[in-house]
Design a protein that fits this description.
One of its GO terms (molecular function) is phosphoribosylglycinamide formyltransferase activity. There is one protein chain. This protein starts with 16 loop residues before the first strand and ends in a 10-residue tail after the last helix. By secondary structure, it is of the alpha/beta class. A 7-stranded mixed β-sheet has the order 3-2-1-4-5-6-7. Helix 2 links the parallel strand 2 and strand 3. The longest helix has 25 residues. 32% of the residues lie in helices and 20% in strands.
Length: 210
């Protein structure tokens, strides 16, 4: 398993780290972070939740927690570059130290990635099984161990530097659904554990621009 990669961000000293979470669906990863943030000692504040679609449970979770939300729909823009620019502008309004892609089902473009440090969780031990069907692909390959990865997002598909990984055993009786549920449990714990470490690391600056 690869060693954890370098931490990409640092918040303003003495203040809670400002995090924007991007979601596309049920928001279970988001909920894990929101629950952790209820402890003042956690040192992280979710300052906004963004989505690429309306009417999703992830936005409802944010609203119940009193966290501001925004939606930037691809269909409302002329092309992906225009959408990427609109998303970058929406993120900038919240001045995040870190952007967390938590089940966000859109590929981010250069206008976001050049301005912000973005991390993503993926349900496999990268570089194995990148892409949208990682759990299915792991089962098809017959592996006995898979897991999840926290990595920095770059211009590729699940190719950014690895920050942390956790292993999950594959059972002979596993279906895609049962395996994915076990991975998601570990994935949530990994994200909650790693965020404070990432955001306290003094050796790295945040890409945050007006």
């Amino acid at each position: 398993m690869p060693e954890p990669g370098p931490s990409p961000v640092r918040p303003v000293a003495g203040e809670p780290a400002r995090v924007v979470v991007l979601v596309s669906g049920s928001g279970t990863l988001l909920q894990a972070v929101l629950d952790a943030c209820a402890d003042p000692g956690y040192g992280v504040e979710v300052v906004a939740v963004g989505a690429d679609r309306d009417g999703i449970l992830g936005l409802e979770r944010a609203e119940r927690a009193g966290v501001p939300t925004f939606v930037v729909r691809l269909a409302d823009h002329a092309d992906r570059a225009a959408w990427d620019g609109a998303l970058a502008a929406a993120l900038a309004r919240h001045a995040p130290d870190l952007v967390v892609s938590a089940g966000f089902m859109k590929i981010l473009g250069p206008q976001v990635l050049d301005r912000f440090t973005v991390v993503n969780t993926h349900p496999a031990l990268l570089p194995s099984f990148p892409g949208a069907h990682a759990v299915r692909d792991a089962l098809a390959a017959g592996v006995t161990v898979t897991g999840c990865t926290l990595h920095e997002v770059d211009a590729g598909v699940d190719t950014g530097p690895v920050i942390a990984q956790r292993a999950v055993e594959v059972h002979a009786s596993d279906t895609e659904g049962s395996l994915h549920e076990r991975i998601k449990t570990v994935e949530r714990a990994m994200l909650v554990e790693e965020l404070p470490r990432l955001l306290r690391d003094p050796g790295h600056e945040t890409r945050r621009h007006p």
